[in-house]
Amino acid sequence: MSEIVAALLLLSGATISLIAAIGVARLPDAFLRMHAATKAGVVGAGLTLLGVAFAFDTGEAWFRVTLIVVFLLVTVPISSHALGRAAYVGGAPMWSGTVMDDLKGVLPRHAIDADPEAQRAIAMPVGAAGPETGARPAPHAAAAPRRMLLALADGAGAAASLRAALEVTAGPRTEVTLLSLLCTPSLNQTGPMPVGGAHFGRRLVEGRFAKAREAAASLATQMETFCQTQGYHFRMRHEEGDAGTLLGHAAAHHDLTVLPRGTWFDHAQALEEGYAAQRSARVSLPGLLLAAPDFTMPGALHFLHEGDLASSEALKRFLGLSFLAHLPLTITGLDLDGADAALEEAVALAAARERPVHRGPALLHPDRPVPLPAFTGGALAIIPARSSSGRTAWRSLREMEASVLLA
Q1: Which of 115, 155, 257, 387 lies at a CB distance of 3.0 to 4.6 Å from 149, suitable for a disulfide?
Q2: DSSP string of 75-93, one letter each residue
Q3: What is the pTM of this model?
């Protein structure tokens, strides 16, 4: 009987340690990774040690295992707390999906994600004069994303869109990932083939893949040269498979993901231009910027709130982002039941985060296209990435030609 219990404990400990190791490798920030690591140190190691004790089943083995388990229970929580405090005070970046910071204002925290000029402005007290100009620093200094993902999908204006987004949002300390993708399901589409046409179908697909790889390599070379010229810290990756899935996995580890509007990862080799635009418009990833070639620094931000839980969660995610935090924010809702209460709550939440915010002048009709000049008008449109309704107003913003940020 003791052998069975020992085997179960050893297997359980090994499984928990494996899950913890996957968490350390995959979770997006230091605080979440540390949460996974403590499980391996206490639960995983503890179960493994108990399995060893049952396997030997001697007094000496039980005595040693008891001492080790007690030592782990005493030291691991203390060391984890000390590491977490040091990471927080040192300015370790938080996951972009973090919606609450209970230690804000309790512990000092260094902002390591901001550029040097913004850091100097933040460090100077309000009203203090700079050493050279005597200017008063802005109370809201713009911070750049720490990790930025550029999705290299070739098409009309793709390189211009990527360069513009990089110039507007990236800072000197931004870590840029150039992700070159080939969407194999799109490139493998051949449609109905006549009898005996399988050979020509394979030749067609092979030719598509060859041209797509050439286009991807050309775009990657252009962006690599641009990053080197501008002095950005970057790395290059190339993957092939289901582009939506691969992009989602990569985006989870970055603060901002940029996809050129109207393009897809067939690199203009399989889908018609209109279908490629529809495919890119259907991507629903929080923190995704669908960038147009004429993308510039917006003068303001405009958030579409649909009055539902998905919009509230999207607003919380967006308010957790550090970049663009200095821009004035307008929150406009749809003319639905409970819209007024949802908007008041949203405005109060943004104000509590010290964001310059005000409510939109009028509610929008949910089943009519949004009047784009009134909604954008120099402002960057922000919409929930995972809307529960998919109404006409929401779709019109996702499918417009201007840049839009998903939250």
Answers
A1: 257
A2: HHHHHHHHHHHHHHHHTPP
A3: 0.62
Instruction: Report the pLDDT averaged over residues 144-164.
Output: 87
3-state SS, residue 311 = helix
**Which candidate, 221, 225, 233, places its Cα nearest to that of 144?**
233
The torsion region of residue 24 among left (phi > 0), alpha (psi -120 to 50) and beta comes to alpha
Would you state the structure tokens that stand for residue 326, as one six-digit string? 């200095």
Across the beta sheet with 175-183, what order do the strands follow?
Answer: 233-241, 175-183, 147-152, 256-260, 288-291, 404-406, 379-383, 300-305, 329-333, 357-359
Structure token pair of residue 376? 């954008």
pLDDT of residue 313: 84
- In the predicted model, is pLDDT for residue 333 greater than 60? yes
Q: Whole-angstrom Cα distance, residue 21 to residue 357?
A: 42
Contact predicate 97/70, CB 8 Å: no
Would the CA dihedral through 246, 252, 253, 257 be positive or negative? positive
CB distance 388 to 310 below 8 Å? yes
